[in-house]
Amino acid sequence: VKKVDINYKELNKFCEQIKLERMSPEERYVTEHMEELYQRGITVLAKNNWAEALKHFERIEKVKPDFKDVKQQLVKISESIKQEQEKKYVIEHIDELYQKGISAIRSEKWAEAKNCLVRIEKVKPNYKDIKQRLLHIEKRIKQKPLLTVLLSFAL
Questions:
Q1: Closest CA relative to residue 55, chosen from 68, 66, 70, 67
Q2: Long-range contacts (CB closer than 8 Å, 24 or more residues apart) made by 88-94
Q3: Are 50 and 81 in contact (CB under 8 A)?
């Protein structure tokens, strides 16, 4: 038995070439243009230039919504933009978020406290005493159901 080494990358290129040859000149032009936009989008995406990548992939989506993985790329870009915005917000409001978290701890609003401090931890994991505070919150969250059960038996 002879072993055959298949180069899937080359095979994909060959299949794409056959598809292009079977297209009308107009379809070929559009597809080649979409491929150029796609490659530009991938290039700027690799550089974390979300706005520029978004432009390229949105242009492709308008003309050929089913082109390659354009929809997935748009989702990826959208998530990256949201993460960047959240990071920027947290950095600009870090003291405010920390104080809100501390206030929520004092009021025993554990979910609110955790939410504030986790947002900070994602951006600045070594900020003040945040790790110890989050451990304290986790302990209190785990204790709360037990306290509720014990109090219900006491009544």
A1: 70
A2: 90/119, 90/120, 90/122, 90/123, 90/124, 91/123, 91/124, 94/120, 94/123, 94/124, 94/127
A3: yes
- Tell me which residue has tokens 């006491």: 154
Tens of pLDDT, residue by residue over 20-67, are 778 788 888 888 899 999 999 999 999 999 999 999 999 999 999 999
Q: Please, what is the Cα angle at 92 between 91 and 94, to 5 degrees? A: 60
pTM, entire model? 0.69
Cβ–Cβ under 8 Å, residues 75 and 59: no
Cα(124)–Cα(93) distance, rounded to whole angstroms? Answer: 12
The CB-based long-range contact list for 94-100 (8 Å cut-off, 24+ gap) reads: 94/120, 94/123, 94/124, 94/127, 98/127, 98/128, 98/130
Which token pair is 52? 């520029």
Tokens representing 131? 């790790």
pLDDT tens-digit profile of 111-138? 999 999 999 999 999 999 999 999 999 9
